[in-house]
Amino acid sequence: MNTLKTQSDNYFKKNWETYQKVLANNYMEHREIYGVLHKLLTDYLPTPFSLLELGCGDASSSVQALLNTTVASYTGIDLSAAALEIAQGNMAQINCEQTFIEDDISKVVEELAENRKQSFDIVTTSFVLHHLSLAQKDKVIEQVFHLLKPKGVFVLIDIVCKEGEDREKFVNRYLENMRQNWTALSSQDMSMIENHISTYDLPETQTTLYQIAQKHNFVRFECLYKDTPESAQFLCLYK
Ligand SMILES: C[S@@+](CC[C@H](N)C(=O)[O-])C[C@H]1O[C@@H](n2cnc3c(N)ncnc32)[C@H](O)[C@@H]1O
């Protein structure tokens, strides 16, 4: 197993319980975000549709968005085998063809785009791309364009800096909001999350993400949801 995978599995196991508390308390507004995704899946997409999810984790929120839709196939990619095992259990409630790939999203999207055998009506990613460098994000967005069917949509949900806000200011603002509002978490949970965000998170501005998308031929962009603290956005990049 390579180092990235080992780190991700260890990270997933250690932080699984904490992330469950964050989701249960809706601190990152997954309920609203995945409600918007459900509406997009039912209103915009052709029926039936195919969906590729980058960094699916345990897929618990995606399952909520996929219930009562015409999804024909679901492909979930994640570095963590532990996450994918739970994802398979969660996705059992959805009646569609399912594939789970344990690997790095950068590598998989490149391979899928190169072999041109598969294409998708929608590609989604939620709270994952900020782990990648700017060059890696650029490459993933470029490959996703090639993986989408005509008129397909890339749903990019992630933390986003305000215009003119640098990484340090964003992290301070995010942590400040967490300390004030994420009150159900223990001090151990808080310091684990604070350490993770301060070390690994590399958010971009909406403008940067739209510029990359435009460079790679996406024709239309819209933001369908902004969270209350203005630190995350639901962006749609249309082919
Ligand atoms: C914060 S969780 C988000 C899970 C889910 N998408 C959500 O919104 O709740 C990040 C997930 O991305 C996965 N991940 C991070 N970097 C990755 C990469 N380069 N390739 C594949 N998966 C990655 C982690 O293993 C983890 O399951």
From TrEMBL:
MF GO annotations: methyltransferase activity
Domain Methyltransferase intervals: 51-211
UniProt record, GO biological process: methylation
One protein family per Pfam: Methyltransf_31
UniProt keyword annotations, A-Z: Methyltransferase, Transferase
Keyword Zinc-finger found: no
Name of the molecule in the record: Class I SAM-dependent methyltransferase
Organism name: Aphanizomenon flos-aquae FACHB-1040
